[in-house]
Known about the structure:
The chain is mainly α.
Amino acid sequence: xxxxxxxxxxxxxxxxxxxxxxxxxxxxxxxxxxxxxxxxxxxxxxxxxxxxxxxxxxxxxxxxxxxxxxxxxxxxxxxxxxxxxxxxxxxxxxxxxxxxxxxxxxxxxxxxxxxxxxxxxxxx
Length: 124
């Protein structure tokens, strides 16, 4: 019996191996470190970045960009999560970090959008 098109499961991987599966994370990291050192990027005294550091940076910068555009983050997060291949928002949240780029944005929102949340006290 032939399997229908709908029943087939497709697997998309960013780093496929020669058999159509995924390259193991340990192998990917070893290759990445090898080429990073060969490229002589940055200071050799500093810790070499990991492949997943780029995922963390991507998630954080994507969120910052949407905040700067005043896009509703609750509407954006499911798209970012799907784009990163996650099925749960908590998996995506793991990659988002508060950094120096967030603080001016948070300060702006706190100053303008949340003024009425805690009203000013009229007495000292």
